[in-house]
Amino acid sequence: MGKCHTLMIFLASSLLLVCQNLKVVNAVDGCAGSFINGNSSYIQDRNKLFSTLANQVIASGEFYNASLGKSPDRVYALALCARGYEEHNCIDCVERATRSIQTICLNRMDSFRWDKDGEDRVSCLVRSSNHTTFGNLELRPANIYPHPDGIEPSKNMTLFQQQWDAMVNRTVESATEANTSTVLKYYGALRDEFTEFPDVYMLMQCTPDITSQDCKRCLGECVSLYKSQYWGRQGGEVNRPSCLFRWDLYAFHNAFGNVTRSPAPPRPPAREKEISKTNKKGRSIGYKGIIVIIVVVTLIINVLASIGFFKFSARRRRLKKRFNVGSAEYSDSAGQFMLRFDLHMISTATDDFSCENKLGQGGFGTVHKGTLPNGQDVAVKRLTKTSGQGDTEFKNEVSLLTRLQHRNLVKLLGFCNDGDEEILVYELVPNASLDNFIFDDEKRSLLTWDVRFRIIEGIARGLVYLHEDSQLKIIHRDLKASNILLDADMNPKVADFGTARLFDTDETRAETRKIAGTRGYMAPEYLNHGQISVKSDVYSFGVMLLEMISGERNNSFEGEGLAAFAWKRWVEGKPEIIIDPLLMEDPRTEIIRLIQIGLLCVQENPSKRPTMSSVIVWFSSETIIIPVPKAPAYTGSQFQSSESGTMSMSNVFTELSSR
Question: What is the reported pLDDT for 238?
Fold first, then answer.
């Protein structure tokens, strides 16, 4: 009986292991999730969404995401065309992939397919699910397609693996290097010459909605899966919902015609009798002579490397002495390395701060567009000389942004503090600020509900990072639509940290006599008593959320504000009154749910407001019961002045959208 029981446990464990493996690898060629009826509303909505997907991905610049239907059967779809393919090839591929999903994954909620053209070249991705996947790393399921033939036994596999691993690292770096100028930013294609193979080709790509770190993780998982199961084959492919990895001994993609061959790895030294050289007198140098040469060359390299290291260290020490942020000196140990720009370089990049390159004017300086020598476009924020407040803001932004890195925060590339010049250099965010869209009668039509929700969720994720996930604890204090910048893909980036406040990790609340921010977005306890906490930002977020839903400025509701107006309509049972008329065709239940979240964020009692992490959970789940909101704060004087005395990046990119 004991042996039978042991055998049953062994068989059950083995079956469980097999099922787990089937879930991870080749889950019916990209099909996963719950089983559903083939005539369900989910399938019908998916078919409708798929019918326009091919044309939409072209119109959106080779990457497109959309949704259709009502929860819990709402369909979220994403399409991507690989770099280098013409429009008609992209359309053909997307249509082919959607047909394949409709056939193979007919009764499954989740599906994805990296499709190939007639020459076995991956050219597009189509993905669908009943939950939003945009911006999230999706690793399961995984499909693996090994080459049928193995590498010849006569090859030196130890050397081959060293060269292959080095090529993997180079391709990952090529695919994930910072590049926000294109939709298909996570992409790398390399061609290398190995010792025993004339050409080795490798391609990696991630969907552009995830972070660089998530892209690296996804590609690393693909490589690990391939090596663990099919190492020794002549090529292979592993793809996941968020990324693709493939290598082979032939040019399987048309992009390889354009890439530059990486430097060939060094060939192994031949045997002693084959490398014996003859000197000028005709005598053999021999084995010992070669050893002497190697030792001398190694010594010279070490000496040169030491000199370079000491020079680099001296330069860092000089930089550290010249730049002091607040009460603590800036150094690499305090955060990531921050590039110090030369004033002459910045002057050249902006054409000596010419009027033609001027993007905007703030209370403490100007912002100009510039182009660095490497071709990268930047936004140069030049603080007004001899401005005490500008100097404080300069130090505050650099001290914080040098240590903050998140896809929903504006990226500070470097600084310059030469003489009385104080300059900040940011990434250029081409679509101006959010207020230029949401409060413009014409541009607001571009903000569909899907786009608005993505912006709202992105701002929330940026705040979660500031409040909880970063190495620092930051209260922004001036959160508003004009301080949210939109990149080329309409992804939001929180900007303007000049008035931000750094908290200790165990500190929950503080008081200040200096009120900085914008009236109408300030929490009542902060405006009236100077009390600051993460709930101050939550209040500002709630006001912005209601603005995004209504398309109206907070101060348009004279005497009471948008929050109070929305609360009255909520109590009357008519919350839909505040919804932007342009959103009438969109899911009403989902929008009203977000009105409820907005009202929870603007409650008068800070302790009753949710955390931003709770808001994110509510966004991603439609089954969680959200608390009933209480009355918001009402301060009639909030709208007497619209702007504070802080320098804002608001509207500094406005002219870009019209150029």
Answer: 94
- 593 and 450 fall within a common domain: yes
Instruction: Kindly report the backbone phi and psi dihedral angles of residue 354, in degrees, each rounded to the nearest multiple of 5, phi listed first.
Output: -70, 155
Distance between CA atoms of residues 37 and 35, nearest Å = 7
Residue 514 is assigned to a structural domain of this protein: yes
Check if the beta carbon of residue 539 is closer than 8 Å to that of residue 602.
yes
416 and 437 co-located in one domain: no
- Tell whether residue 514 is among the known ligand binding residues: no
Is residue 625 within 8 A of residue 459, CB to CB? The reply is no
Same domain, 95 and 51: yes
Question: Which residues, given as ranges, of the chain have pLDDT below 70?
Answer: 1-29, 38, 60-61, 84-85, 117-122, 178-184, 254-292, 295, 308-338, 362-364, 385-394, 396-397, 399-403, 498-517, 558-559, 634-659
Q: In angstroms, what CA-CA distances link 205 with 176, 249, 513, 587? A: 9, 19, 51, 33
Buried b (16+ CB within 10 A) or exposed e, 364-383: bbbbbbbebeeebebbbbbb
Whether 478 is a known active-site residue: answer yes
In a domain, 304, yes or no: no
| pLDDT the model gives residue 450 | 92
Query: Rounded to whole angstroms, how far apart are CA atoms 657 and 422?
Result: 27
Please answer whether residues 580 and 444 qualify as being in contact, where contact means their C-beta atoms are separated by less than 8 angstroms: yes
Same domain (yes/no): 176, 59: no
pTM, two decimals, is 0.48
Is 290 within the bounds of a domain? no
Residues 332 and 406 in one domain: yes
* 177 and 67 within one domain: no
Catalytic residue (choose from 214, 478, 537, 580): 478
CA 25 vs CA 19, 100, 142, 240, 577: distances in Å: 10, 18, 5, 9, 49
- pLDDT digits 0-9 by tens, 355-365: 888 887 765 67
Range of the domain at 64: 21-134
**Cis peptide bond N-terminal to 265, omega within 30:** no
Q: Phi/psi of residue 422, each to 5°? A: -130, 115
Is residue 203 located within the same domain as residue 339?
no
In this structure, the answer to whether residues 642 and 545 fall within a common structural domain is yes
Mean pLDDT across the chain: 77
- The CATH number that applies at residue 221 is 3.30.430.20
> One-letter amino acid identity for 224?
S
Domain final residue pick, 401, 427, 453: 427
68 found inside a domain: yes
To the nearest 10 degrees (0 to 180), the angle between helices 534-550 and 561-571 is 70
The CA distance from 210 to 407, in Å, is 9
- The DSSP call for residue 361 is E
Domain total for the chain? 4
Rounded CA gap, 189 and 203, in Å?
4
